[in-house]
Amino acid sequence: MKKLLLLGALTLIGWLSPTLAAPTTKADTPLAGHYYLKNAREVGSELLLKPDGSFEWGMSYGAVDQYAEGKWQRQHGKVVLQTAAPDKEPDFRLFRDEELRIRKPAEPGTWLAIVGMPGVGPMAGVEVTFESKAGKTATAVTDRNGDATVDMSDSETWARAGLRREGSKAPLQWFAIPAGRAAAHLTAFAVDDIAYLRPQPFKTLQLQVKGSTLVVDDGSGMVYERK
Fold it and tell me: Are 83 and 202 spatial neighbours (Cβ–Cβ below 8 Å)?
């Protein structure tokens, strides 16, 4: 098996499974297979077109790693990649005390919830519902820094918070707020999967089919060769 060039953070080890690497059958689309970026200096990139119509794509250059997954289809001599967010809902938990290293407190008159993965990075697009002991609620969505902030009177005591992805119809995941964090008007929540932290590098990508190669249709001249 060929060894992956990309960093482990791309989680592309699954690409090497015998099932994915096996030759396609006559019943499979002839385009399904494993492609590598050709003749690119200091850039590693791979594209896996699966027979079931899904794909995985990764690129590594310098200190930057990118990863995308979704669905693919053939249209008018091109392969069209359409990215998709993870299907399952994330699982959240409170940061442990040793993980909660906050550089600055919440602003006066506000409550702050931070969402992300300890030691990795923030998660944007999380709807956070704040609820006081008196039953007063307020809702905010985490920004690119993973921060969700609401205005709240100092007379209110933070009791719990409910989380879910923005726009999701899933039930809120509720957490009681420890007394010390409630008094500080600040806490943090960890997400279970790094996939929720990575912004998709593209929504749609088109590649022209030229024999056993795929040429990115954006003028960059990037060519993926099937192995």
Answer: yes
The rounded distance, in Å, linking the Cα atoms of 149 and 152 is 9
Question: Tokens for 146?
Answer: 């993973």
Cα-Cα end-to-end distance for the chain: 11
Neighbouring C-beta atoms of residue 127, cutoff 10 Å: 18
10 and 67 Cβ atoms separated by less than 8 Å: yes
CB atoms within 10 A of CB 156: 18
- The residue with tokens 């297979």 is 33
Label residue 208 exposed, middle or buried (CB < 10 Å: 0-12, 13-18, 19+).
Answer: middle
Is the pTM higher than 0.70?
A: no
150-192 residue pLDDT tens:
999 999 999 999 999 999 999 999 999 999 999 999 999 999 9
Residue 117's CB: how many other CB atoms inside 10 A?
18
Element (H, E) at 181: helix 179-184
How far is residue 149's CA from residue 126's CA, in Å, rounded to a whole number? 12
Per-position DSSP letters for 125-145, written without gaps between them: SEEEEEEETT--EEEEE--TT
Nearest to 226 by CA among 208, 216, 213: 213
Q: What is the DSSP letter of 8?
A: G
Structure token pair of residue 7 = 């960093």
For 154-165, write each residue's pLDDT tens digit. Answer: 999 999 999 999
Residue with tokens 């990037």: 222
